[in-house]
Amino acid sequence: MVNFHIREYRAEDYETVRDLFATGMSEYVPTLCVHMLKQPWVILVLACTFCLLLTSSKSLLLPILAITLLVAMGRQLLGYVWSMYIDHCLQADLLDIQATYMGGKGSCFWVAEVDECVVATVGARPSEEHPEELMLKRMSVRKDYRGLGIAKALCKTVISFAREHSYQSVVLNTLMVQHEARTMYSNVGFRVYRHYVLPTIYGRLANCTVSKYRYDIPSVG
């Protein structure tokens, strides 16, 4: 087991935290592509294109090349859309981490260090919809440090923070492609309480489903 240390965010962590988040989110592009290829309408379009070209050209090579080109173009488009989402996050709460997470008593941001190097992050701040709920955000662990209990320890840090500040629960959102994260949250004690499809054109086309998790803080006394 690797020895790691969890501490609160400091200003000098800024670039490392943002790079860690962007790199971690970029790793989901291949999984998103596979998810997209499983959508019924995508399968139908590719099948119809293949059959149409095969019938008209009497050649197997042309439809194969066309399908390959369509998939490659789709991969590029999906990567572009996903990079826009990452940029949006970097320009939102991660633009000024100090002000967003460290400026009030009810929010905080933590990093996990190994040999004085930041390898994981997590943030927490009050939910905009329900102030009695603490929102867990920006959980990210460097790829070569996953599976070592760091994410679980960060989760427990957020839960302890929520308990100390009298929150009723900790909530978070995950995408359908974040399989390892969803398993980890369930093992910690979070439970799914809602699913919804992102209300955007891309969200509907890709059936991009968000699962909302909750960890209820037991009341004292």
Automatic annotation (TrEMBL):
Q: Which UniProt keywords apply?
A: Membrane, Transferase, Transmembrane, Transmembrane helix
**Protein name in the entry:** Probable N-acetyltransferase camello
Stored CDD domains:
NAT_SF
Q: Name one GO molecular function term.
A: N-acetyltransferase activity
Per the record's keyword annotation, is Membrane included, yes or no?
Answer: yes
Organism of derivation: Eublepharis macularius
The segment(s) forming the N-acetyltransferase domain are: 62-208
Domain of life from the UniProt record: Eukaryota
Protein's UniProt keywords contain Transferase: yes
Ranges annotated as spanning the membrane? 41-74
**Coiled coil ranges:** none
